[in-house]
Amino acid sequence: MERIFAAVDSFKGKRIAVIGDLMLDAYTWGKVNRISPEAPVPVVQVTRRSCCLGGAANVIRNIVSLGASAAAFGIVGNDAHGSKLRELLNQEGIDPVGVLTDPGRPTTFKERIIAGSQQLLRLDDEQQTAVNETIREQLGIEFGRYLKTARPDAVIIEDYAKGLFSPDYAQRIVDLCTAEKIPVTLDPNAHNPLNLHHLTIMKPNRAEAYEIAGIPQPVTGDSLDSLKTVAAKIRREWEVKYLLISLAEDGMALFMDDGSCEVIPTRAKEVFDVSGAGDTVIAASTLALCVKDDPVQAAEIANYAAGVVVGKLGTATVTADELKNALK
After folding, report:
1. Residue 209 in 3-state DSSP?
2. pTM for the complete prediction?
3. Is 279 a catalytic residue?
4. pLDDT tens profile 98-155
5. Tens of pLDDT along 66-81?
6. Catalytic pick from 279, 293, 294, 321?
7. Are 91 and 38 contacting, i.e. CB atoms less than 8 angstroms apart?
8. Is the four-CA dihedral 288, 187, 208, 195 of positive or negative sign?
9. What letter does residue 107 receive in the DSSP assignment?
């Protein structure tokens, strides 16, 4: 346990760059006492409103809350939501060096309506078409310049399939990192198959893993053998070093470069909200691998970190102290 504590303490001083789909998450909190006379829907009496960094920005937020420093690369719109996202990045101490504005598209904005601890509705205001090519190229230039000057310890590609990444563009990002000997980790989206090569970690959830592999997921639940088949195909086709598959309440399955598999049971004590848990996993596992190339330890740390986050309501993060308390 002391070695894991030491690894968490070593997060401080690490620098991670995250490139991906930046979002602003908003919450309207309230209580329900009656049904509307206008339609069979609950009437939410609003008690408060809040907003926080979401999507790739939530990954960055987790990195900072765990004690490391981070730089953001992505696109926002020329709108109030984009201004708020930039404001929150500044408040969190996140370097916005690669946050560019595309005046032709809105900032991705998600609003959740919550009564008590129950989410009633989510409103998505977004554009999923490809980002303006000129702006995307400028982002690539800024990213390449940052790699050479700042030399981060790792890069995370966070794909929510909102139009930033094409397969060629994402591979160029990986190639830039590989040329600088900087490890790259990926949180993929099955709706935007990228098929990248030379990744250090790839972290799909179970459903995404089956879809990425092009293998139908068993209706009655999958066995470890069927998951191994999926993992073998992904690792062979993507040439990824470590494949970490989230299994929800069943924990995680780690598939390594020597062909071995380690199943790590869930560490969550209570589950209130799973939104953002995947962001925490990719952030914590990447940081842990920056400290030591020990994929099992990295997966264990990420698993505990996710266990803390799902016990919170809303898009949440985990601090280094919370993680160490969970490890105790």
Report:
1. helix
2. 0.92
3. yes
4. 999 999 999 999 999 999 888 999 999 999 999 999 999 999 999 999 999 999 999 9
5. 999 999 999 999 999 9
6. 279
7. no
8. negative
9. P
